[in-house]
Amino acid sequence: MKLNRRDFILFSGLSFAFKNFRSEKNPAPSHESWIELSLKNMGWNLTKIKQKVKVPVMGVIKANAYGHGLIEFGKQLDRLGVDALMVCKLQEAVRLRESGVSCPIYNFGPVIPNNTPILVKYNISQFLHTGDFKNMSLRAEKLGAAINVHIHADTGMNRMGIPYKKAILVIKQASQLKGLSISGLSTTLCEDEQFDKVQLKRLQSIYDESQKLGIELGARHAASSSGIFESQSYYLDMIRPGITLYG
Is 224 left (phi over 0), alpha (psi -120 to 50) or beta? Predict the structure, then answer.
């Protein structure tokens, strides 16, 4: 049976009872394992992806580039012309900036108002998963800045994001704040062909309704690596490949 991401989220709460834990009586092996990847081959992957989709690429290098080396992969992707990078921890975004990465960097991690000066200093963009962003906006405004943000809507994954039925209200609120600048609308697909179509329709509905209200949301994006190979209809205005970059 094929298990899509939505089903996994719904049922994963049952899995902890069956998880095996190692004890001191049965310790993990002492030897370490590693994977060696070619930066050259990753560049080839990026080139092929861009040739196929013909829309901007936001490379996902969260969790230390999936354990493969944040700085090495981030700098290489930046050199090769990736349109943006996405991480899940602000510390990773800062490390990338301090290493010389100049392309747009998006933090998919939570909104923490105390981190606003860091976002401004390092020119880091932020995903908004909830309606709790007013304090961040006020702090940015006091610094004479506006944080570039993407609205992340939950269109059915049930994991994180603003519930799609409440998205318009949140977008209205965000659009009125001087400390925020909306430049994107995103969602995460379940990787179930039929339900993905439902999610894309919901995302487009949010976009269209915002347009009617005179609110420009910028780039729409939903497809991760698997979406690249499903249909052009998944590409929208940007894609977010992760594992596909690594081969």
Answer: beta
* Closest listed residue to residue 167, CA positions, set 196, 133, 126, 129: 129
227: in domain: yes
Give the mean model confidence (pLDDT) for residues 148-152.
Answer: 99
Instruction: Please state, in angstroms and rounded to a whole number, the distance separating the CA atoms of residues 152 and 163.
Output: 9
> What is the pairing mode between strands 105-107 and 84-87?
parallel
Mean pLDDT of the chain: 89
The full 3-state SS of 126-159, as one line of letters, equals EEECCCCCHHHHHHHHHCCCCEEEEEEEECCCCC
Number of domains in the chain: 1
pLDDT band at 2 (very low <50, low <70, confident <90, very high): low
Task: Tally Cβ neighbours within 10 Å of residue 30.
Answer: 5
Secondary structure class of 68 (helix, strand, coil): coil
Is residue 6 very low, low, confident or very high in pLDDT (cuts 50, 70, 90)?
A: low
Instruction: State residue 137 phi and psi, 5-degree precision.
Output: -65, -45
Domain that holds residue 202: 56-246
Percent of the chain with pLDDT over 90: 77
| Beta strands at 147-154 and 180-186: parallel, antiparallel or unpaired | parallel
Integer angstrom CA distances of residue 183 from 17, 67, 219, 234: 42, 29, 6, 19
